[in-house]
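worker-3 :: picked Helix-turn-helix domain-containing protein
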Amino acid sequence: MESHTFREKSRIPLIGSDEAAQLLGISLRTLYSYVSRGRIGRVIDPITGKSQYNRREVEEYARKRDRGRSAGNAARASLSFGLPVLDSQICAIKAGRPWFRGQDAIALSETATLEQTAALLWNVDSLPETGIAGVVDSAGTCGERFLPRFHQWLLANMDQVYAREVLSRNQQLLHASRILRAGATIAVGNDLRDVPIHEAMARAWGGPAGAANIIRRALVLHADHELNPSSFALRCVASTMASPYASTLAGCCAASGVRHANFSAVMALIGATLQGADPAALVASGVTGGRALPGFNHPLYPKGDPRATALLDDLRAIASNRDMACIDGLLQTAHATYGLLPKNDFALAAATQLLQLPTDACERIFVVSRIVGWNAHALEQYSSPLLIRPRARYVPD
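worker-3 :: tokens ->
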């Protein structure tokens, strides 16, 4: 069973070896042994000669395998898109869509601001007023890059909370609001002047008419995404009752890794597309060696990431016909050839380039947006008496 026949190839979501191994929680060597033993089928791409796998078959095999596992093995599998490991009222992913406290996040993003989304996820009527005097000055020694400056601001402001001080919920909310305003101020580069964050970004960065609305929607759509790596890292830190500044810094550090949201790789792919590169060659090159094409195929959305769909649909209304045709050509080629569908970071990177925003605007938008979700998780974790302390299984060489 080295090779399976997959009919109607364009309708079947094919994935590379790396993504198949990740879904199964195994090494590439083990994946190849699964193929040789007939447990998993594969096809050989006629262009690249690389192995491709039917995502649905891989996911179904993982479900059947995990049902028969011991509790310990099931716990290990839960660490990579597996079974839920803690309860939360913040965000759910069901029916192929994200939901914020029971509200469809895609529908919410049609009109809501990030500030309104923060109030929803933090479970308050409105955000507390907070002063952020000197925010930019206190983060001004790391050059112009946003994330290092925000990291420095978080470190510089940790003394806002005394060591091992247990904060009341009102105090937690005040600090969370302060962190959000600070992150947005640093991202924009000047005072927000009491305007919504998306308007401040649009004014500072320019762009065509309609850019502010797409920035607003992107901020809302990325406010939270269940228990992703950065939110889990933050919850581990918050469970020790570390301050909101320390907890947010943990989330930021996790988000800086290329496996979290690799905007640079997606930006390069889209840049080449807009410069007229052949989409078939770009896609084939991107999946060489069984790699995942940057910005495609989110494991939680086998039928497509609705956040990407929403942003790309909005972009079509204001982007130039030529640029959008290039983007759509790449999307059609990726889907027809490998069954790939765009995810959120592709859409956010596309918006950055088509709206002619600063090159790191996608990172700024993502982090400022996710500050809302991170602090929602911190607030929820602070209310729990439990310390997050998983166990490790010792495996000798």
